[in-house]
Specification:
- It contains six helices and twelve strands.
- By secondary structure, the chain is an alpha/beta fold.
- The strands form three sheets. It has an eight-stranded parallel barrel with strand order 3-4-5-6-7-8-9-10, surrounded by four helices.
- α1 packs parallel to α6 and α2 (97-104) runs parallel beside α3.
- It is globular and about 40 Å long.
Amino acid sequence: MPGPATGAQEDPPAQAHHHDVSWPRPGLGFWARPRLGPHLDSGLGHGRRGPPGAARVVGVYVKICGLSEPEHVATAVEAGADAIGFVMTRSPRQVTPERAAELAAAVPAHVLTVGVFRGESPETVRAATLASGMRGIQLHGKHPHGDFTALKDLGHTLIRAVDAKADLRCGAYDEDLLIIDAPRPGSGESWDWSAVRGHPSGHWLLAGGLAPSNVADAIAAAEPWGVDVSSGVELAPGVKDSDLIRRFITAARP
């Protein structure tokens, strides 16, 4: 995830309303609308499918963020990640659009590639997204509704990443996915995941302080549609570890 947190996101305009995410969305690959599966009566987990011909499996959506080396991109794909994030904003994990394009070239179509931004203008985000070939755009922190509106014409998957004090309705800013992060995103600090249980609506991912050792507990506590991790699969800031990536994905889908 990007660097230090900013304040809570400003309230959306009065005309903003809950957005019914239709599936499949551009950039979401072969994902279908989630459906209940054998162990989902409690609200945990979601039906999902991978590449054409693959059997439907049940589990949370998993995004691995802040990758910068081909080895770790390959590991995330092979281990079953659904989305991979490339940070193109100030961060120990920052990569250039050109580097992101090189890394994303090896990512199959059923895995969403996401450019992660924080504080950049829509014009800057647009240029970096087109240069890198990302199919998803994540705006992290205090981005106004207008930033998402300005990028909708690209037809990319839009992701809004905020803390728990923001509007927790997925789609309130015309985004397709919502990420709810720790009060200090990128800190790697755990927080009270259960505090958001039942509050977010739509397709949302839990982030902040997640690691192979606690992701199962976090999922049980918050009941998210998916999870997002960065520092929890690192040996040091910006230094990913293939074994931790594999262990995280396995733990998220027991």
